[in-house]
Design a protein that fits this description.
Blueprint lengths: L1 E5 L1 E2 L1 H19 L3 E5 L11 H10 L3 E3 L10 H7 L18 E6 L3 E9 L10 H12 L6 E6 L3 H11 L5 E5 L9 E2 L5 E3 L4 E4 L8 H10 L12 E10 L6 E10 L1
Parallel strand pairs: 1-3, 2-11, 3-4, 6-7, 7-8, 8-10
Antiparallel strand pairs: 1-12, 5-6, 9-10, 11-12, 12-13
Length: about 260
């Protein structure tokens, strides 16, 4: 199975390149399924039901998220009933929605996904390592093809999760920092790994926001509104090929598509 994992979709520019490019790219590369991090898809922070359903229509099978999932309260009810949009599994009990899902991919079987959030330099949440183990044990009853979105600040925490889950899942893909790293690899147990798969949005920016506003904030330390840029839009991610029988990754390649 060929699975494309798309890095954090940022605002309307990110959604627009998905609309314009994803279907042709899927056809060209013979991609079977698509997972994308959508936590910044609504105006650069958060996601709504309308946008999630729109992204699904564009060809995304599963949407993961992160710490910005709670920015739009209107999405809470959708999270409770959707099997397409998930939130980090290690938020405390009582948070809307769930942190893992299994979706039937036509002609290819079931694709599982787990969403986690890191604890280093981020808000206090439950242990992502222990929660990952529990979610994977449940998903293994349905499929052996499982992708993990590790949404975290610290490189060390992402790398540790990759080693912890090596041989247990098909891929551990890092998100959140919006900068694609050059460390994609297949770990010894057969798990594909990358520290961050990048951002889908404007690259004439500071991680998606208008650069002059971010620079002003650093210079003055005064609060201002971080507006989404709209220049040099690209779709970044990774393409992972997985052996459908074993669930082990065969290859991982970085993806960069210009608008």
């Amino acid at each position: 199975m060929k699975i494309l994992f798309i890095g954090d979709i940022v605002g309307e520019p990110g959604r627009e390149i998905i609309r314009k490019k994803l279907r042709d790219y899927k056809s060209e590369k013979k991609i079977d399924a698509v997972i994308a991090n959508a936590e910044n898809a609504a105006g650069g922070s958060g996601v709504t039901q309308r946008i999630a359903e729109e992204l699904h229509e564009f060809g995304i099978d599963i949407m993961t998220s992160g710490d910005h999932i709670w920015k739009k309260r209107e999405v809470y009810e959708y999270l409770r009933r959707s099997d397409r949009l998930i939130r980090p599994a290690n938020y405390p009990d009582g948070a809307p929605g769930c942190g893992a899902t299994a979706v039937e991919i036509k002609g290819k079987g079931v694709l599982g996904a787990v969403n986690l959030i890191g604890r280093v330099f981020m808000d206090a949440v439950d242990c992502p390592f222990r929660k990952a183990q529990k979610e994977i044990e449940t998903l293994k009853k349905k499929t052996n093809i499982i992708f993990v979105d590790m949404h975290a600040e610290a490189t060390s925490e992402k790398v540790a999760m990759g080693w912890y889950l090596d041989g247990k899942v098909s891929a551990v893909i890092g998100t959140h920092t919006h900068i694609q790293t050059a460390d994609e690899k297949i770990l010894p147990g057969g798990t594909a790994y990358i520290t961050d798969c990048g951002m889908t949005g404007p690259y004439d920016s500071v991680i998606g926001r208008r650069k002059e506003l971010i620079i002003e904030r650093f210079l003055t330390q005064l609060p201002n509104r971080f507006e989404v840029s709209d220049k040099e839009v690209e779709m970044h991610g990774v393409l992972v090929e997985v052996d459908e029988k074993t669930g082990k990754a065969v290859s991982i390649k970085r993806v960069r598509v210009s608008s």
